[in-house]
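User: quick one
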Amino acid sequence: MTISAKAERTEAVSELKRSLILAAARRVFESEGLDRASIRAIAREAGYTAGAIYFYFPSKEAIYGAILQELIGRLVESVERAVVDAKKPEQRFQLATLAFFDFFAEDPRDLDFGFYLFGGGMRPHGISREADAALNESLLRSLAPVSEAARQCGFDADEARACAASAFAHAVGLLLLKHTRRIRIFALEPRVLMEMYAQSVAIQFEGRCKTMAV
Amino acid sequence: MTISAKAERTEAVSELKRSLILAAARRVFESEGLDRASIRAIAREAGYTAGAIYFYFPSKEAIYGAILQELIGRLVESVERAVVDAKKPEQRFQLATLAFFDFFAEDPRDLDFGFYLFGGGMRPHGISREADAALNESLLRSLAPVSEAARQCGFDADEARACAASAFAHAVGLLLLKHTRRIRIFALEPRVLMEMYAQSVAIQFEGRCKTMAV
Amino acid sequence: MTISAKAERTEAVSELKRSLILAAARRVFESEGLDRASIRAIAREAGYTAGAIYFYFPSKEAIYGAILQELIGRLVESVERAVVDAKKPEQRFQLATLAFFDFFAEDPRDLDFGFYLFGGGMRPHGISREADAALNESLLRSLAPVSEAARQCGFDADEARACAASAFAHAVGLLLLKHTRRIRIFALEPRVLMEMYAQSVAIQFEGRCKTMAV
Amino acid sequence: MTISAKAERTEAVSELKRSLILAAARRVFESEGLDRASIRAIAREAGYTAGAIYFYFPSKEAIYGAILQELIGRLVESVERAVVDAKKPEQRFQLATLAFFDFFAEDPRDLDFGFYLFGGGMRPHGISREADAALNESLLRSLAPVSEAARQCGFDADEARACAASAFAHAVGLLLLKHTRRIRIFALEPRVLMEMYAQSVAIQFEGRCKTMAV
DNA sequence: TATGAATGAGTATTCATTCAT
DNA sequence: TATGAATGAATACTCATTCAT
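Assistant: Done. Structure below.
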């Protein structure tokens, strides 16, 4: 048992160090931007030498991936928390959609990473197939409240997924506009536009729900 | 006349080579991604030495600019052509929105550049302030049919702009999903989703128009 | 004779063009500095294409050489003009030495070239052996008034050459100090130092002359 | 102690490598000239890859700086050592002046750098303002024995500085002649000319000293 | 004689990654 | 586990020179 206990202990220590490096990486990404964040910079921030990082992550891209995983975990949590108290499905839809939007709108750092995530497919960024699958799953999970709300209003599975995909697309599009500041050419607040979208869909939901009740 | 003819000929040849380099650049951007597209890579693809490129373009950014210019020109043209025969405003809205979507959906090469265009502000990609302003203007122009249709249905200027911005955002979001292939997790066709969005907005337009008529 | 006349004419035209290019080169060297003066820049200034320059000069270094030749020609002239009216040898010595100094002190452009000339031997700058010999000869000629003055005071050939070499060295050293602005650390005027040197040597000359007379 | 010993050892090794790179740099500067001495060339000479150099020096200019620093340190030392035993001021003047001359005359490698040093101001070679100021100060220090000797003979501060500046200029001019081999046209030994200059000034010093004594 | 096109070697610096210790 | 050293490829851009036309 001693050996096993020791192994466990070192494992735990290793895991902690890993997370400390990730935290350092996030700090560097935040302050320097994605492009400027070199392995050396991350290592320095974490109090390590560049080479040491490779004991915890096989590559720079792996660090990106790990941060993304954590990011999307927070996203799921954030969306779920937003709908926890709401009962009416159309309300749940609205809250979930806006929570998704707000999550990225509030923190530009996350947004940058989010686009890296969404844009990850454009070119192979070095994210492994499994990691990518995991990201997809998490993404779906973050949108689960949205599609569930649709189901509750009587939409079929296909329609529910369409609702989720559309809400996602709309949010992402507006976030892009906001982030690139091209929203300025419209002289409009992206948050307001997102609310308008959520509400107009919610009204459709309501209509459905009533029909169902009848 | 001989001199002029000769000058004209060499000018034409030079222009052709310029466009061949641009085509090569597009190919490289497509296959390697924007970040990886170095002058050397472009030159290699075009069958040139790196230095030779500078005979045709003063800088790498100038190449970006030339491609973007041409791209957005085609976009504007494409959207305008789509609505040319439509009379009813709600129809014009639908056609314009879908044309915008289709333009990028059809050619992934353009889409990549489109994201560069839309995303140009995320990080400084070296686009000059004026070039950026020009892009914004062109972008607005490409969406003009959309907002004009809204005006014709009785929406005020603010609302019309909101319509354009939302349509733009929705299209961009779906294109992102399509391009990154994350749309797969929804098992839906992005084109269909775009149509649904366009139609649902068009219906709202129709309601307005009737009200107005009354 | 016609053929010969024609050849002569084209020869003259060619020579003229050569000198026009040299003038352009001087202008570029002046405004851009030695490092920045590229063949292309010179060609542009002269209204030519880079390639055309090679019909008149075999290399960039050859242009340097030609400018140096002309420069040193003006130097010789300048020194000779300075002593033309002086009769007494010690006066001739002073005037010649100061003229040498002033020639470079007055025009920083010439000075830059002068150092290029003097420094030409440090590394092979592409000046041909003959060109270099010609430069040496011209240099000696520019110092001829100095050594001749010494001879007239009764110094032997060796001593006369030593006078010339020393005056040359002193002038060059001061010019270097002036040009690099390191003279500032001494808080002294280089021209004044040069005068002091010339005078102190002139006094020695005077002593000799008198001795001789006796 | 082991840790400390190890750290010390690696530190020493690192320092050695640094000095080997500097030596290689000096060799390259000598054989290729300052302009042609690229980081790559230095690295090659030192048996390194270009990138590896940056492990030891932050920039090319830092290499220049390090070499200059060391060079001028040796110069000051050399001049001071030369006068250490001499008592009479005119003798100190002669010894210091000749030591200054000899320092550069003996090692052409140093001379090249010396010209870089003295000539640093001609064109911006990338020397920082502070580095330049430090060089000026060191330069003055190397000439201190010269001006002090003058003061001891009764010259005032201005005159003493003039003596130093003149000696410096004369030495530099002769070194330039020697180095460029243009001294050949005078068929004289530069060392002899330097001795003559030093002696003639020393005689003037002597006169002054006696006057003072009286 | 002159052009326009093209080359190829060159510049300093950065960085992800590897590996002996 | 961690370091320090090292690599090699990459970056945009410049320039003297050559050559077919």
